[in-house]
């Protein structure tokens, strides 16, 4: 049996041994069950369980390349970043992230709470589940983690130390390429367009100079704006849910970036869920209930975020200059502008990029998939170009309805 003093990629039995001997999470004699779980783009995930006590943990180990493609060389330091981010998120948003049990810098592996009683939100939405507490939970998570890690709240030296400790160049590069550049300029030829929709998508995304200019401006903001400790990949595949519980996972993309990046990711992924439900479900009360709930949730994510942000701002902002009349509104205005821009980026990149979403790819009928893709891209472009004026839940819902009407559901 290995003693884990040199890095290697573990198999499930190694993970069990590692949890027992290196992390000390199980008694010496425990007969542990183990399995590899998860089909993410980047890492290896194991569940280890002691049937005698019922105790179980999840282990997440980083490899030197992404699972989705070995084109992506990614530093194994991302596990440290995820672990450190989880500790901070547990302090700022308790109950909304898994509890951590340990981290090992040799094996690049961290241990955390087993959330097997939850489901990945994207999968739940595709089976037409609804999560009544989600908007409340996710807005608390975002407001607490984003506002409470800014310069206007934290001691400035502590904030700068955090910026340094969360420098995450490899994972940021993935986002810079996949989210900000390639959806609008397929320079590495690794985009993956649905063939029957290719010409339309290419025209909309590759031949629009205004769009390219606006995405270049947004990319600069991602490069330079060390505003908040952001999750960095807050889509519905990074969120575990139950009817009464929401847990944000997969924080390896965390770094100091624009706060609106996280909010825009949540909004865009609700739009994907809506596009799927509205396109795929037959006309019925169930379809109406599902799309209405998604609309209400999208609305409440935007409006709840603003409401909670303003309340927490009043309570926690200590930077004296931030008390200047007009500053709070100006600051939130910037976050909302970035939210709209990133909503458009995420809608674009998941439609044409290498990392798709099942909300679109699972649509078997080509005309239906084309319709869902087109409404997402129409909305995306307006979110990016008109981001200065898109500030309310109703603004997003109007755009969604506008895009859906331009592309009616096929018969
Ligand atoms: C190479 S990783 C591709 C995508 O998967 C992750 O979940 C991120 O969203 C990333 O952009
Ligand atoms: Mg992930």
Specify the CATH homologous superfamily of the largest domain: Aminoglycoside phosphotransferase (APH), C-terminal lobe
Percentage beta strand: 5-15%
Helical percentage: 40-55%
Query: Which CATH C-level class of the largest domain is it?
Result: Alpha Beta
The bound ligands are: 5-S-methyl-5-thio-alpha-D-ribofuranose, magnesium ion
Task: Profile the largest sheet.
Answer: 5 strands, antiparallel
Explain this structure.
With 411 residues, this protein is of the alpha+beta class. The protein has 2 domains: 12-112, Phosphorylase Kinase, domain 1, CATH 3.30.200.20; 119-406, Aminoglycoside phosphotransferase (APH), C-terminal lobe (Aminoglycoside 3'-phosphotransferase, Chain: A, domain 2, Alpha-Beta Complex). The chain has helices spanning 12-22, 78-92, 121-126, 134-147, 156-165, 169-181, 198-206, 209-224, 260-280, 285-316, 327-352, 358-361, 366-385, 393-406, and strands at residues 33-37, 44-49, 56-61, 100-104, 109-113, 119-120, 228-230, 239-242, 245-248, 255-257. The protein has a 5-stranded antiparallel β-sheet, with helices on both faces. Strands 6-8-9 form a 3-stranded antiparallel β-sheet. Strands 7-10 form a two-stranded antiparallel sheet. A hairpin with a 4-residue loop joins β4 (100-104) and β5 (109-113). α9 crosses α11 (327-352) and α11 (327-352) runs antiparallel to α13 (366-385). The relative contact order is 0.12. The model has no long low-confidence stretch (mean pLDDT 97). The structure holds 5-S-methyl-5-thio-alpha-D-ribofuranose (SR1) and magnesium ion (MG).
